[in-house]
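Researcher: Next entry in the queue.
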Amino acid sequence: MSNSASNTTSTLTVYSRPRCVHSAATYRDLDAAGIQYEGIDLAEDIGAREYALSFGFLEAPVVVVTAPDGRVAAAWGGYQPKNLALFIASCRSESAEPARS
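Model: Structure for this entry, 101 residues:
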């Protein structure tokens, strides 16, 4: 499941499990807001599963926000509507900023 990640300052990756209601809720919120993200199925990608587990979260999905410089800006496990709302708001405020010349 790929919606190509990003807003102009950071990217969002959702590491999910098949038939997981929390993963489905996360995707639903992101899709409803028109947010681009990369969805990775933990059942199919062992390397991604190991990376997601490295954050210490035991509940899917594991959501990772990566800054343009490649550092992890935020990460959380499970369905976290407040964290999603903050990310969505940051994307919207960023797109509302006037272009600088």
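Model: The chain has one domain: 11-92.
Researcher: Noted, moving on.
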